[in-house]
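Hi support team,

I submitted a single chain yesterday and got back a structure, but I'm not sure I'm reading the token output correctly. Could someone confirm the output below corresponds to the sequence I sent? I've pasted both exactly as they appear in my results page.

Thanks,
R.
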Amino acid sequence: MNLSCLFWQDNVMSVKHFAFAKFSEVTEQCFFLFTLTLLMFLTSLTGNALIALAVWTNPVLHTPMYFFLVNLSLLEIGYTCSVIPKMLQSLVSEARGISREGCATQMFFFILFGISECCLLAAMAFDRYTAICSPLHYAARMSRGVCIHLALVSWGMGFMVGLGQTNYIFSLDFCGPCEIDHFFCDLPPILALACGDTSHNETAYFVVAILCISSPFLLIVASYGKILAAVLVMPSPEGRHKALSTCSSHLLVVTLFYGSASVTYLRPKASHSPGVDKLPALFYTVVTSMLNPIIYSLRNKEVKAALRRTLGKKKF
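Hi R., thanks for writing in. Yes, this is the structure output for that exact sequence:
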């Protein structure tokens, strides 16, 4: 055990610094993963920033759907920035350590952005449900005030859950080992380092995961169930195609995000293994946030046109 990361407090040896496990002893593998992750990270930042800029600078996109899309882009930027820079540093240097306070901060922001995105995706599904199933009442039900309220609730839920979970986890004692078998301060690998019986914490973590991941997902499923029922009774094939095309991008994003997140957070503890957990974690922290702006820009003519106008103005 590395005693440099421990200190004595009230006759108890506690961890004051953590260290992320090395990805590989082979330098070439670490460099390859660093290069690949950096490219995806830069693509994610650029794509999400361009989406937000395009919506902000084009009044034709100042509608509820694109208001939520801007919030999604901002969440994705925060999501990746809370995790990836430290991961990149750990890949190419021996500076793989992180303080207890730094680890808690990283966990807080990761949960904040992750839970906020779960709630925001549900708000976006409700927006699509209202637009397709109640088009005559859409303007009233999805007014500017309602949209801002839904966005604030999404961010607020992320903040409260992040603060509560982080405080609950880091109120525990950590007696060592100091090494986190992961590339960021996620809940399961940190809980694995805690002293004594952590069954209550694991139960609380699992309950929060069920409520904050499954509940928004069920709202999304209910919304799309109503949408599908409304689309099936539309007399016009063009109307059905148009209605479904406005939902396809959101459905694909939901599938990518929830598919990878549920593999990590909704599985029983017995089926967890650090090596396996890193793969879906890498997917939903880097790959999904990189794909989201691509999905929305390639499958949406209005976004593509706005991006051309925005990039044209900047070039000029």
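A quick pointer for reading it: DSSP finds eleven helices and five strands in the chain. Let us know if anything else looks off.

Best,
Support desk
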